[in-house]
Amino acid sequence: MSKAVTARRLTGAALAGAALALVGVALAVSGVFARERGELDRRGEFVTLASAAAGASRLTLLRVALREGEAVLFEVCARDSLAPARWAGAATLAVWPAGEADALVEAPLDVALLSGDATTHFAEGSCVRIAEAGALGASGEFDVGVAWAPRASVSTTVAPPQVVWPQPSVRNVPLQGHVIARRPLDAGDRAPLAMIVVGALIALIALGLRARSNDAEAPMPASAIGRALLGAALLTALVFAPAVLPLQGATLVLLFALLLAGAQLVLGAALAPRAVSASGDAGTRLDTLGLGATRKLRWLALLLAPLAGVLLFFGGRVVSAVVSLLLPQTSAAAIETFVEWPSASLAVATVAVVAPVAEELFFRGFLYGSLRTRLGVVSAAAITVIAFVLPHLPQVWGAWGALAALLVTSVALTLLRVVTGSTVVPAIVHLTHNALLALLATS
Questions:
Q1: Which element (helix H / strand E) includes 72?
Q2: Quick one: CATH architecture of 40-154+161-182?
Q3: Opening angle at CA 217, ends 213 and 220, nearest 5
Q4: I need a surface site. Which of 15, 39, 127, 347 has the fewest CB within 10 A?
Protein backbone atom coordinates (compact mmCIF):
# COMPACT_ATOMS: atom_id res chain seq x y z
CA MET A 1 0.00 0.00 0.00
CA SER A 2 1.42 3.38 -1.00
CA LYS A 3 2.18 6.08 1.52
CA ALA A 4 -0.33 8.37 -0.19
CA VAL A 5 -3.15 5.84 0.23
CA THR A 6 -2.18 5.23 3.85
CA ALA A 7 -2.13 8.96 4.54
CA ARG A 8 -5.58 9.38 3.01
CA ARG A 9 -6.99 6.55 5.09
CA LEU A 10 -5.50 7.93 8.27
CA THR A 11 -6.90 11.36 7.45
CA GLY A 12 -10.32 9.79 6.90
CA ALA A 13 -10.07 7.96 10.24
CA ALA A 14 -9.14 11.20 11.99
CA LEU A 15 -12.11 13.00 10.46
CA ALA A 16 -14.47 10.14 11.33
CA GLY A 17 -13.24 10.16 14.93
CA ALA A 18 -13.68 13.92 15.16
CA ALA A 19 -17.22 13.61 13.77
CA LEU A 20 -18.10 10.93 16.35
CA ALA A 21 -16.75 13.14 19.14
CA LEU A 22 -18.78 16.13 17.91
CA VAL A 23 -21.98 14.06 17.88
CA GLY A 24 -21.18 13.02 21.45
CA VAL A 25 -20.72 16.66 22.45
CA ALA A 26 -24.09 17.61 20.94
CA LEU A 27 -25.84 14.76 22.78
CA ALA A 28 -24.09 15.65 26.04
CA VAL A 29 -25.19 19.30 25.81
CA SER A 30 -28.76 18.15 25.15
CA GLY A 31 -28.57 15.81 28.13
CA VAL A 32 -27.31 18.50 30.49
CA PHE A 33 -30.06 20.87 29.36
CA ALA A 34 -32.76 18.22 29.89
CA ARG A 35 -31.35 17.32 33.30
CA GLU A 36 -31.23 20.92 34.44
CA ARG A 37 -34.82 21.58 33.38
CA GLY A 38 -35.99 18.56 35.36
CA GLU A 39 -34.19 19.45 38.59
CA LEU A 40 -36.12 21.16 41.35
CA ASP A 41 -35.06 23.47 44.16
CA ARG A 42 -38.32 25.01 45.30
CA ARG A 43 -39.01 27.19 48.32
CA GLY A 44 -42.45 28.32 49.42
CA GLU A 45 -43.40 31.72 50.79
CA PHE A 46 -42.79 32.37 54.47
CA VAL A 47 -46.03 32.02 56.47
CA THR A 48 -46.86 31.62 60.15
CA LEU A 49 -48.89 29.02 62.01
CA ALA A 50 -51.23 31.81 63.06
CA SER A 51 -52.32 32.12 59.43
CA ALA A 52 -53.97 28.67 59.49
CA ALA A 53 -57.74 28.62 59.18
CA ALA A 54 -59.76 28.43 62.37
CA GLY A 55 -60.18 24.83 63.46
CA ALA A 56 -57.51 23.53 61.05
CA SER A 57 -55.08 20.89 62.24
CA ARG A 58 -52.41 21.40 59.61
CA LEU A 59 -50.87 24.09 57.43
CA THR A 60 -49.45 23.48 53.95
CA LEU A 61 -46.24 25.43 53.35
CA LEU A 62 -45.41 24.20 49.83
CA ARG A 63 -46.94 21.99 47.11
CA VAL A 64 -44.70 20.45 44.44
CA ALA A 65 -45.06 17.99 41.56
CA LEU A 66 -42.48 15.19 41.68
CA ARG A 67 -41.63 12.26 39.40
CA GLU A 68 -41.05 8.61 40.20
CA GLY A 69 -37.39 7.70 40.65
CA GLU A 70 -36.24 11.16 41.71
CA ALA A 71 -33.99 11.61 44.74
CA VAL A 72 -35.91 14.00 47.00
CA LEU A 73 -35.22 16.05 50.12
CA PHE A 74 -38.12 17.53 52.13
CA GLU A 75 -37.50 20.12 54.85
CA VAL A 76 -39.07 23.03 56.67
CA CYS A 77 -37.11 26.19 57.38
CA ALA A 78 -37.81 28.90 59.95
CA ARG A 79 -36.56 32.39 60.68
CA ASP A 80 -35.74 31.17 64.12
CA SER A 81 -33.06 29.19 65.95
CA LEU A 82 -35.54 26.31 66.57
CA ALA A 83 -34.33 25.91 70.13
CA PRO A 84 -35.59 22.60 71.61
CA ALA A 85 -36.79 24.34 74.78
CA ARG A 86 -39.17 26.41 72.69
CA TRP A 87 -40.16 24.07 69.87
CA ALA A 88 -40.11 20.54 71.34
CA GLY A 89 -43.66 19.18 71.22
CA ALA A 90 -44.97 22.25 69.37
CA ALA A 91 -46.07 20.42 66.20
CA THR A 92 -45.22 17.75 63.66
CA LEU A 93 -43.58 18.34 60.30
CA ALA A 94 -45.07 16.18 57.56
CA VAL A 95 -45.39 15.42 53.85
CA TRP A 96 -48.78 14.46 52.39
CA PRO A 97 -49.84 13.33 48.93
CA ALA A 98 -51.86 16.36 47.76
CA GLY A 99 -55.53 16.08 48.69
CA GLU A 100 -55.07 13.15 51.07
CA ALA A 101 -55.55 13.18 54.81
CA ASP A 102 -52.90 10.68 55.83
CA ALA A 103 -49.29 11.82 55.92
CA LEU A 104 -46.71 10.04 53.79
CA VAL A 105 -44.00 10.75 56.35
CA GLU A 106 -43.96 12.60 59.70
CA ALA A 107 -41.24 14.15 61.82
CA PRO A 108 -42.48 15.20 65.28
CA LEU A 109 -40.61 18.21 66.66
CA ASP A 110 -38.92 16.69 69.67
CA VAL A 111 -35.59 17.22 71.40
CA ALA A 112 -33.87 14.43 69.44
CA LEU A 113 -34.89 15.87 66.07
CA LEU A 114 -34.10 19.47 66.95
CA SER A 115 -30.72 18.58 68.46
CA GLY A 116 -29.62 16.07 65.83
CA ASP A 117 -28.13 16.14 62.34
CA ALA A 118 -31.55 16.68 60.76
CA THR A 119 -31.52 20.29 61.97
CA THR A 120 -29.11 22.75 60.38
CA HIS A 121 -28.56 26.34 61.43
CA PHE A 122 -27.77 29.37 59.27
CA ALA A 123 -27.31 33.07 59.86
CA GLU A 124 -30.90 33.74 58.75
CA GLY A 125 -32.51 30.82 60.59
CA SER A 126 -32.69 27.02 60.72
CA CYS A 127 -34.03 24.10 58.68
CA VAL A 128 -35.30 20.69 59.77
CA ARG A 129 -35.12 17.74 57.40
CA ILE A 130 -38.38 15.79 57.31
CA ALA A 131 -37.28 13.01 54.98
CA GLU A 132 -34.79 12.19 52.22
CA ALA A 133 -35.59 9.56 49.59
CA GLY A 134 -33.03 8.04 47.25
CA ALA A 135 -35.74 7.21 44.70
CA LEU A 136 -39.35 8.38 44.95
CA GLY A 137 -41.79 5.51 44.67
CA ALA A 138 -44.50 7.24 42.63
CA SER A 139 -45.14 10.43 40.69
CA GLY A 140 -47.62 13.03 41.94
CA GLU A 141 -48.13 16.26 43.83
CA PHE A 142 -46.99 16.47 47.42
CA ASP A 143 -47.60 18.96 50.24
CA VAL A 144 -44.96 19.92 52.78
CA GLY A 145 -46.24 21.46 55.98
CA VAL A 146 -46.89 21.43 59.70
CA ALA A 147 -49.58 19.46 61.59
CA TRP A 148 -50.85 19.50 65.11
CA ALA A 149 -53.03 16.67 66.46
CA PRO A 150 -56.60 17.24 67.71
CA ARG A 151 -57.17 16.61 71.42
CA ALA A 152 -59.74 13.90 72.11
CA SER A 153 -62.83 14.99 74.04
CA VAL A 154 -63.24 13.65 77.57
CA SER A 155 -67.00 14.21 77.57
CA THR A 156 -69.33 11.22 77.77
CA THR A 157 -71.30 12.69 74.90
CA VAL A 158 -70.11 12.67 71.35
CA ALA A 159 -68.44 15.97 70.55
CA PRO A 160 -65.99 17.13 67.91
CA PRO A 161 -62.37 17.02 69.03
CA GLN A 162 -60.72 20.23 70.10
CA VAL A 163 -57.68 21.31 68.16
CA VAL A 164 -54.52 21.73 70.21
CA TRP A 165 -52.78 24.78 68.73
CA PRO A 166 -49.02 25.12 69.08
CA GLN A 167 -48.05 27.30 72.00
CA PRO A 168 -48.30 31.05 71.37
CA SER A 169 -44.49 31.51 71.43
CA VAL A 170 -44.11 29.80 68.03
CA ARG A 171 -47.33 30.72 66.25
CA ASN A 172 -45.90 33.89 64.68
CA VAL A 173 -42.55 32.49 63.57
CA PRO A 174 -42.21 32.61 59.73
CA LEU A 175 -41.98 29.07 58.27
CA GLN A 176 -41.13 27.92 54.76
CA GLY A 177 -41.34 24.60 52.93
CA HIS A 178 -38.31 23.53 50.89
CA VAL A 179 -37.98 20.63 48.43
CA ILE A 180 -34.97 19.52 46.39
CA ALA A 181 -35.52 16.89 43.69
CA ARG A 182 -33.10 15.48 41.14
CA ARG A 183 -32.86 12.33 39.07
CA PRO A 184 -29.56 10.43 39.54
CA LEU A 185 -27.35 9.93 36.51
CA ASP A 186 -27.50 6.58 34.71
CA ALA A 187 -25.74 4.69 31.94
CA GLY A 188 -27.62 6.65 29.28
CA ASP A 189 -25.99 9.85 30.48
CA ARG A 190 -22.53 8.32 30.07
CA ALA A 191 -23.07 7.14 26.49
CA PRO A 192 -22.30 10.56 24.90
CA LEU A 193 -19.15 10.80 27.05
CA ALA A 194 -18.00 7.43 25.72
CA MET A 195 -18.63 8.66 22.16
CA ILE A 196 -16.45 11.72 22.79
CA VAL A 197 -13.61 9.67 24.28
CA VAL A 198 -13.65 6.98 21.57
CA GLY A 199 -13.94 9.52 18.77
CA ALA A 200 -11.12 11.65 20.13
CA LEU A 201 -8.87 8.59 20.61
CA ILE A 202 -9.46 7.48 17.02
CA ALA A 203 -8.65 10.95 15.72
CA LEU A 204 -5.52 11.29 17.85
CA ILE A 205 -4.12 7.85 17.00
CA ALA A 206 -4.71 8.50 13.29
CA LEU A 207 -2.92 11.84 13.55
CA GLY A 208 -0.03 10.23 15.41
CA LEU A 209 0.45 7.54 12.79
CA ARG A 210 0.20 10.06 9.97
CA ALA A 211 3.02 12.26 11.37
CA ARG A 212 6.21 12.34 9.32
CA SER A 213 9.49 11.14 10.75
CA ASN A 214 11.67 14.15 11.47
CA ASP A 215 13.76 14.74 14.55
CA ALA A 216 14.91 18.21 13.51
CA GLU A 217 13.53 21.11 15.52
CA ALA A 218 13.83 24.14 13.26
CA PRO A 219 14.03 27.52 15.01
CA MET A 220 10.99 29.74 15.41
CA PRO A 221 10.92 33.29 13.97
CA ALA A 222 11.45 36.33 16.23
CA SER A 223 7.68 36.90 16.34
CA ALA A 224 7.12 33.59 18.16
CA ILE A 225 7.37 35.04 21.67
CA GLY A 226 5.01 37.88 20.82
CA ARG A 227 2.51 35.42 19.37
CA ALA A 228 2.74 33.28 22.51
CA LEU A 229 2.13 36.30 24.75
CA LEU A 230 -0.83 37.40 22.64
CA GLY A 231 -2.39 33.95 22.74
CA ALA A 232 -1.89 33.67 26.51
CA ALA A 233 -3.40 37.14 27.08
CA LEU A 234 -6.48 36.39 24.96
CA LEU A 235 -7.04 33.03 26.64
CA THR A 236 -6.64 34.58 30.11
CA ALA A 237 -9.28 37.18 29.29
CA LEU A 238 -11.68 34.41 28.27
CA VAL A 239 -10.93 32.20 31.27
CA PHE A 240 -11.66 34.94 33.79
CA ALA A 241 -14.67 36.39 31.93
CA PRO A 242 -17.14 34.56 34.26
CA ALA A 243 -15.72 36.54 37.20
CA VAL A 244 -17.13 39.68 35.57
CA LEU A 245 -20.28 38.10 34.15
CA PRO A 246 -21.10 35.13 36.44
CA LEU A 247 -22.65 32.17 34.63
CA GLN A 248 -25.69 30.54 36.19
CA GLY A 249 -26.74 26.99 35.52
CA ALA A 250 -25.03 23.86 34.27
CA THR A 251 -25.99 24.38 30.62
CA LEU A 252 -24.52 27.89 30.41
CA VAL A 253 -21.35 26.79 32.19
CA LEU A 254 -20.97 23.88 29.77
CA LEU A 255 -21.54 26.09 26.70
CA PHE A 256 -18.95 28.57 27.98
CA ALA A 257 -16.45 25.74 28.56
CA LEU A 258 -17.03 24.49 25.02
CA LEU A 259 -16.53 28.04 23.74
CA LEU A 260 -13.27 28.17 25.69
CA ALA A 261 -12.13 24.86 24.17
CA GLY A 262 -12.96 26.14 20.71
CA ALA A 263 -11.05 29.35 21.39
CA GLN A 264 -7.96 27.35 22.38
CA LEU A 265 -8.13 25.39 19.15
CA VAL A 266 -8.59 28.52 17.04
CA LEU A 267 -5.95 30.59 18.86
CA GLY A 268 -3.40 27.78 18.75
CA ALA A 269 -3.94 27.08 15.05
CA ALA A 270 -4.12 30.74 14.00
CA LEU A 271 -1.22 32.14 16.04
CA ALA A 272 1.24 29.25 15.74
CA PRO A 273 4.35 30.57 13.95
CA ARG A 274 5.98 28.66 11.10
CA ALA A 275 9.38 27.17 11.85
CA VAL A 276 12.25 28.29 9.61
CA SER A 277 14.85 25.69 8.66
CA ALA A 278 18.55 26.34 8.12
CA SER A 279 17.93 26.50 4.37
CA GLY A 280 15.35 29.22 4.88
CA ASP A 281 12.37 27.01 4.02
CA ALA A 282 9.30 27.68 6.14
CA GLY A 283 7.74 24.80 8.01
CA THR A 284 4.05 24.36 8.71
CA ARG A 285 1.96 25.33 11.69
CA LEU A 286 1.35 21.62 12.27
CA ASP A 287 5.08 21.23 12.91
CA THR A 288 4.94 23.95 15.58
CA LEU A 289 1.86 22.39 17.17
CA GLY A 290 3.56 19.00 17.40
CA LEU A 291 1.18 17.46 14.86
CA GLY A 292 3.38 17.51 11.79
CA ALA A 293 7.08 16.73 11.51
CA THR A 294 7.57 14.86 14.78
CA ARG A 295 9.58 11.91 15.95
CA LYS A 296 8.04 8.84 14.38
CA LEU A 297 5.26 7.51 16.61
CA ARG A 298 4.81 3.75 16.50
CA TRP A 299 1.71 1.77 17.39
CA LEU A 300 3.33 0.71 20.66
CA ALA A 301 3.85 4.30 21.84
CA LEU A 302 0.27 5.23 20.96
CA LEU A 303 -1.21 2.13 22.57
CA LEU A 304 0.82 2.62 25.75
CA ALA A 305 -0.32 6.22 26.09
CA PRO A 306 -3.74 5.28 27.60
CA LEU A 307 -1.94 3.12 30.18
CA ALA A 308 0.20 6.14 31.06
CA GLY A 309 -3.03 8.11 31.51
CA VAL A 310 -4.33 5.51 33.96
CA LEU A 311 -1.06 5.59 35.92
CA LEU A 312 -1.15 9.39 35.97
CA PHE A 313 -4.72 9.34 37.29
CA PHE A 314 -3.90 7.07 40.23
CA GLY A 315 -0.58 8.83 40.84
CA GLY A 316 -2.42 12.13 41.05
CA ARG A 317 -4.87 10.71 43.58
CA VAL A 318 -1.99 9.51 45.76
CA VAL A 319 -0.33 12.94 45.59
CA SER A 320 -3.64 14.62 46.37
CA ALA A 321 -4.22 12.40 49.41
CA VAL A 322 -0.72 12.98 50.80
CA VAL A 323 -0.83 16.75 50.33
CA SER A 324 -4.35 16.90 51.82
CA LEU A 325 -2.98 15.28 55.00
CA LEU A 326 -0.15 17.81 55.22
CA LEU A 327 -2.19 20.83 54.09
CA PRO A 328 -5.88 20.31 54.96
CA GLN A 329 -8.41 21.92 52.66
CA THR A 330 -9.08 25.50 53.80
CA SER A 331 -12.25 26.07 51.80
CA ALA A 332 -14.56 24.23 49.45
CA ALA A 333 -13.28 24.35 45.91
CA ALA A 334 -15.71 26.02 43.53
CA ILE A 335 -16.08 22.85 41.49
CA GLU A 336 -17.04 20.83 44.60
CA THR A 337 -20.02 23.09 45.24
CA PHE A 338 -20.98 23.15 41.58
CA VAL A 339 -21.20 19.37 41.11
CA GLU A 340 -23.79 18.83 43.84
CA TRP A 341 -26.46 18.63 41.10
CA PRO A 342 -26.53 15.76 38.54
CA SER A 343 -26.77 18.23 35.64
CA ALA A 344 -23.64 19.96 36.88
CA SER A 345 -21.81 16.65 37.35
CA LEU A 346 -22.68 15.72 33.77
CA ALA A 347 -21.54 19.14 32.54
CA VAL A 348 -18.20 18.83 34.36
CA ALA A 349 -17.73 15.29 33.01
CA THR A 350 -18.40 16.53 29.47
CA VAL A 351 -15.87 19.33 29.85
CA ALA A 352 -13.37 16.83 31.26
CA VAL A 353 -13.40 14.72 28.09
CA VAL A 354 -13.63 17.66 25.66
CA ALA A 355 -10.89 19.84 27.15
CA PRO A 356 -7.79 17.59 26.78
CA VAL A 357 -7.40 17.90 23.01
CA ALA A 358 -7.95 21.67 23.04
CA GLU A 359 -5.67 22.22 26.04
CA GLU A 360 -2.88 20.08 24.66
CA LEU A 361 -2.98 21.82 21.29
CA PHE A 362 -2.82 25.25 22.94
CA PHE A 363 -0.41 24.67 25.85
CA ARG A 364 1.84 21.77 24.83
CA GLY A 365 1.40 22.47 21.13
CA PHE A 366 1.22 26.21 20.45
CA LEU A 367 2.77 27.67 23.61
CA TYR A 368 5.60 25.19 24.08
CA GLY A 369 6.19 24.88 20.34
CA SER A 370 6.48 28.67 19.96
CA LEU A 371 8.89 29.13 22.87
CA ARG A 372 11.01 25.98 22.57
CA THR A 373 13.76 27.24 20.29
CA ARG A 374 13.53 30.89 21.36
CA LEU A 375 13.89 30.33 25.14
CA GLY A 376 15.25 26.80 25.33
CA VAL A 377 13.52 23.56 26.24
CA VAL A 378 13.73 23.99 30.05
CA SER A 379 12.35 27.54 30.12
CA ALA A 380 9.65 26.74 27.57
CA ALA A 381 8.60 23.65 29.53
CA ALA A 382 8.52 25.55 32.84
CA ILE A 383 6.38 28.33 31.35
CA THR A 384 4.05 25.74 29.82
CA VAL A 385 3.60 23.94 33.17
CA ILE A 386 2.71 27.17 34.98
CA ALA A 387 0.54 28.50 32.16
CA PHE A 388 -1.53 25.29 32.21
CA VAL A 389 -2.10 25.43 35.97
CA LEU A 390 -3.10 29.11 36.20
CA PRO A 391 -6.48 28.91 34.37
CA HIS A 392 -7.47 25.97 36.59
CA LEU A 393 -6.79 27.78 39.87
CA PRO A 394 -10.34 29.14 40.35
CA GLN A 395 -11.66 25.56 40.21
CA VAL A 396 -9.38 24.07 42.87
CA TRP A 397 -8.32 27.00 45.07
CA GLY A 398 -8.53 25.99 48.71
CA ALA A 399 -8.31 22.27 47.87
CA TRP A 400 -4.53 22.00 48.06
CA GLY A 401 -4.40 18.27 47.35
CA ALA A 402 -6.27 18.77 44.07
CA LEU A 403 -3.95 21.67 43.21
CA ALA A 404 -0.88 19.49 43.81
CA ALA A 405 -2.33 16.75 41.60
CA LEU A 406 -2.98 19.33 38.89
CA LEU A 407 0.64 20.48 39.05
CA VAL A 408 1.92 16.90 38.80
CA THR A 409 -0.35 16.32 35.79
CA SER A 410 0.96 19.45 34.06
CA VAL A 411 4.59 18.43 34.63
CA ALA A 412 4.01 14.89 33.35
CA LEU A 413 2.19 16.01 30.19
CA THR A 414 4.84 18.61 29.41
CA LEU A 415 7.63 16.07 29.83
CA LEU A 416 5.85 13.77 27.40
CA ARG A 417 5.73 16.61 24.88
CA VAL A 418 9.46 17.22 25.32
CA VAL A 419 10.45 13.54 25.09
CA THR A 420 8.23 12.50 22.17
CA GLY A 421 8.33 15.77 20.23
CA SER A 422 4.60 15.30 19.67
CA THR A 423 1.39 16.72 21.10
CA VAL A 424 -0.49 13.53 20.26
CA VAL A 425 0.94 11.39 23.08
CA PRO A 426 0.25 13.88 25.91
CA ALA A 427 -3.21 14.46 24.42
CA ILE A 428 -4.02 10.72 24.61
CA VAL A 429 -2.63 10.53 28.16
CA HIS A 430 -4.60 13.63 29.17
CA LEU A 431 -7.79 12.29 27.60
CA THR A 432 -7.48 8.92 29.37
CA HIS A 433 -6.76 10.66 32.68
CA ASN A 434 -9.80 12.90 32.33
CA ALA A 435 -12.02 10.05 31.16
CA LEU A 436 -11.43 8.40 34.53
CA LEU A 437 -12.26 11.69 36.25
CA ALA A 438 -15.49 11.88 34.21
CA LEU A 439 -16.38 8.30 35.19
CA LEU A 440 -15.83 9.20 38.84
CA ALA A 441 -17.94 12.37 38.54
CA THR A 442 -20.90 10.52 37.01
CA SER A 443 -20.85 7.40 39.24
A1: strand 71-78
A2: Sandwich (2.60)
A3: 135
A4: 15
